[in-house]
Amino acid sequence: MLAGMLTAAAVGVASAADMATKAPVLKAPAELPFFFVNDNSISYHYEFLATNPGAGKTPKHVLSFTHFDVWKYGTNFINIDWLKATSMQTPTLDGGAPYTEIYGFFRSTFGFNEVFNTKAFSYGPLTNVSLMVGADLNTDNTQLGSAKRSIEAGIQFSFAMPYKGFLNVTPTVYKEWQHDGFNGITPGTTNPSGNVDFNTTWGFEWLYVQPLGFMPSWLPLTYKFFGTIHGPKGMGEPAGSAGLERTTEYYLQQNLSLDVGPWLGLRPNMYSVWGGYRYWVNKFGIDPKQPFGNFTATTESTWLLGATVAF
Question: Where does the signal peptide begin and end (predicted)?
Fold first, then answer.
């Protein structure tokens, strides 16, 4: 329209009127694609001293696939880990043999601002409020025969942080099922199937991602702090079975990531290396003080070292 006005001023009113009849119709802006963020990555990391409650401590190799997308009404996050324990440092019911585990989970959010087409859920540093739903599942080849299945839902509050960082905090309701291979082979057990059905309990999750923008531009570092807390969920097995008492579980992990892509002349966030520290108290909710005595290896304190390739 501005171009048409300038041309009309140059050629006279008559020409302007003629051009007005021939002006092209402006097209509506193109709609955003269904998924306007779609990121995938593969990671490897080494856990120096992971634990297996009741069995002992072991280093682990972990290979991960991660997917994250943003769509019109929210986000989806999927992560699948393949974990390989290298050894056990204390005798176990599995004979001290290494074991393999596959663990997967997803989290999806539905933003209230997007669903209701409003900005009412943004105020100050608060950028959105969302419904979060998720599920976890795993399997391993130990005598326990772990078969975790859990679901959860909660309300996520998202906050803007400096240098394009963000903080998500989510109180949740949590429900878990498991499998207890030891109880299933115990003579006279009241739970021969080994199926475990825990009580519904409360939970809390958080994710804090903070680019260290105050550092020199040639040193692109990002700090991440994430974790979960799950409340007591009961024994989950029939009375008289040899189940374990469960208590509040705390999982906390901090990572410091270096984006090495620009150093290689590639796009940012394509290649990164990172180190981390994990502190996991009452792992799997297992109380170390059991009726029959203290239960070992319920706290995990380990360093991690890894690398990630995004595509």
Answer: 1-16
CA distance 92 to 146: 15
Over range 26-38, report the average pLDDT: 71
Orientation of helix 2-11 relative to helix 13-22, angle to 10° = 150
| 9 burial type by CB count under 10 A (0-12 exposed, 13-18 middle, 19+ buried) | exposed
Domains observed in the chain: 36-310 (2.40.230.20)
- Tell how strand 289-290 and strand 35-52 pair up: unpaired
pLDDT at 17: 37
Give the pTM.
Answer: 0.85
pLDDT tens track for 144-192:
899 999 999 999 999 999 999 999 999 999 999 999 888 766 666 778 8
